[in-house]
Amino acid sequence: MGKRDNRVAYMNLIAMARSRGPIQSSGPMIQDYLNRPRPTWEELKEQLEKKKKGSKALAEFEEKMNENWKKELEKHREKLLSGSESSSKKRQDKRQGKRKKKKKSRSHKSSESSMSETESDNKDSLKKKKKSKDSTEKEKVRAKKKKSSEE
């Protein structure tokens, strides 16, 4: 018996591609892009002028909107100016009233009223302490629940 033939046929890929013929392209080629019709210089100038001018309807609309906006701004300014004058007067009357009230309350404090105020303050502080204790206890319970759920 003879030796086995270990040779492998060599395939020249480039030669095979050429034998198939030209490739059918699906889209436009570079030559198509370069050979496209282009406008002349005068046509370009005309197009640019049209773009600069814009539409007349749009220009009219923008002018109307600007006028309306200016009117609204003027109305708003008038309101603010008239409102600020009256509100500043009201604020001054309120400030004077508050000052008088404070002076009266400070000058007419009696020992009995101060005693009642300290008692009410003590009650308020006790309530706050109770609330803070309750909140800390709730946080501890939540922490325990989280630990038990993680395990």
TrEMBL record:
Top-rank taxon, per record: Eukaryota
InterPro entries: Fam133
Start-end of Basic residues biased regions: 89-108, 141-151
Transmembrane segments: none
Biased composition (Basic and acidic residues): 69-80
Disordered: region residues: 69-151
Family of the protein in this entry: Belongs to the FAM133 family.
Full protein name: Protein FAM133B
Organism, as annotated: Bos mutus grunniens
Biological classification of the source: Eukaryota, Metazoa, Chordata, Craniata, Vertebrata
